[in-house]
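Hey, weird one. I pasted the Small CPxCG-related zinc finger protein sequence into the form twice and got a warning about non-standard characters only the second time. First submission, copied straight from the form history:
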Amino acid sequence: MTEIRRCPDCGVTMEAMRIQTAEGFSLQLVTNERKKGLLGGLGLKEKLEPTAYVCPECGLIRSYAERDESE
């Protein structure tokens, strides 16, 4: 779920956008934390998908790592 974020410069609501490469692949952030369960026991690391928030007024871009709190 994406949050409502406001531009610190303009005060308007920023638009959530997905970040991807020119080839259409999603970017991922790999943490030093192990995944939960069996995959973490095998040494796999947690991966987060960043969401970009763009100000429609000034063009400011901020990226946030969205964590899934249900896991």
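That's the output from the first submission. The warning seems to come from a hidden character in my clipboard, not from the data itself. The chain has a mean pLDDT of 80.
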